[in-house]
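So, read this over?
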Amino acid sequence: MVINSTTAGSRKAFRCHLTLCTNPMAGMGMINMTDHHYEMQHEIAAGDFSAHIRAIVASGLYCLSIGLGMETGLFDVMMSLGQPKTCQEIANAGKYKERYVEAWLDEMVTAQVVSVNPSQGTYWVPKDLWPSLRKDSKQGQSIMSTLAIPMLSEAFHSVKECVKLDGPKGVPPEQYSRFDRYISGRNSVWFNHYLVQSFLATVPGLMKRLEEGICVLDVACGEGSATAAMAKAFPKSQFYGFDISQAAVCTAQEKVAEAQLTNARVVCHDITHLPSEWTGKFQYIFSRSGLHDLPHPRPGLAELNRVLSDEGIMSALEPSCHSSLAANLDVASGPNLYAFSLMNCMPVSLSVDGSDGLGAVWGQEAATAMLEECGFKVTSVTDVLGDISMHLCCQKIKAKTLLSQGTTSSVETSEDGPYKAKPFSSILGEKVKWGLVSLALALGVEVGLFDIMVSHNRPMSCQEIAAAGKFKERYVREWLGSMVTSKIVSMDTSQDLYWVPRHLVSSLLRRGVPSSPSESVDSVPILSGAFYSLAHCFKLDGPEGIPSDNSSQFSKYIFDENSIWSVFLSLS
């Protein structure tokens, strides 16, 4: 008999958190103050709202467990074995501690990611899911994105302090010690499967020019995946990548050298001070999410305009969204964009004196206006296949020949396996989205934003909320973006006012009751703090567990003695 979590009654592992909810917003509706049925609708939705909050937190914890499978290599080991194996056989194959593997397998069975034959005690990953669980596959972006939760949690308490009026203005990038590794791993999936194969062909006339030979600049190239992919595909063209991170540049240089790409060069530069000899050098400039993080975007854009040839093209790929919260209410990626921006993009940018602090939700309208202010003409804005970015295709304003509007294909092909693998990748992507929201939710509870809004018992502007709590308005605005698009906070778009409906208050205020949703919202950032330590504990030659003096902060979130977190503490 083969079972998964729907029939595994004896599998208790972490059930309270690993609820497989493909749409944690089911049953929720946006309530506007002008709605005559305001009270009645919220009274009906109050019970669903509590479940909504629990599902958001569960998504964050789900991502941690999936992320452990990738970080430790357990998914790779199980797929390489190719057939059902016992827990001990899996542990032996990967040189893991059997007790940790057992606890993790229990969670994966509960989450319907791993299948089990209880009569034989064997486990396997269904082949339909393999493409979604391979970090280098075309569907691999979602599993790579699960690592965003522990990566961002490294700076959770620093961001919390930044919200306060008397706190630091931002968070230095050094506090996100694994950011370069995370962003490179996630972005490399798109660079390796979409950049050359589909995206470049959407830029009018570019493919022919690349094949004949031009100079290309890769902005904020990170660890060089895009630079290397393009250089390999177009040997007659010359590719220059630059980044401000010396560590990322060193990795990129090693990658280029290893691939023996003589037409690629990676250097460390500040975008606001590019080499003088680069003036007019590049016929094509490529930037993927390299603009909204700039502390001083205008000088940076002016430099890009200087180094672009008069008839050159620049592709600026930025998160696909609008520049106002009201316009982003129906943007599917809105919740995670605002949350990621709150937890990383904005605080890192604001850590630099005089920063604009654009954030990830810079938006099409503001981006277009700034690009044109800095000497570019945005000739088209199109969707990007395989990504949540928009493509702002630009030329210099003084270009003699303007491009016609580019087009993108709506048909996605897969080289990685059966089409039915995609639903799981989509489910995993949704889990990541709500996992990111769980961090913003925890921040609101921890810093007291919900308390301030509830105590005033009326719709308030962002500025009023910030003043009442002695918070920085810029941080409050980004947090409200995540909460409104997640249908946790309501908004009157005509007056830019925000409030927590009265019937939903009990789910967001701390009551000292362990079963209350508000009592578990900070479990994701707290347990994330142990993520990488736990990954090391899996290895036979790794530590046995977490030191006992650090375990007290986790204990209130351990609801099942068989969960991986409970095992982690008991073996310390």
Summary: The chain is about 45% helix and 10% strand. The longest helix spans residues 38-71. Residues 173-396 form a domain with the Rossmann fold fold (CATH 3.40.50.150).
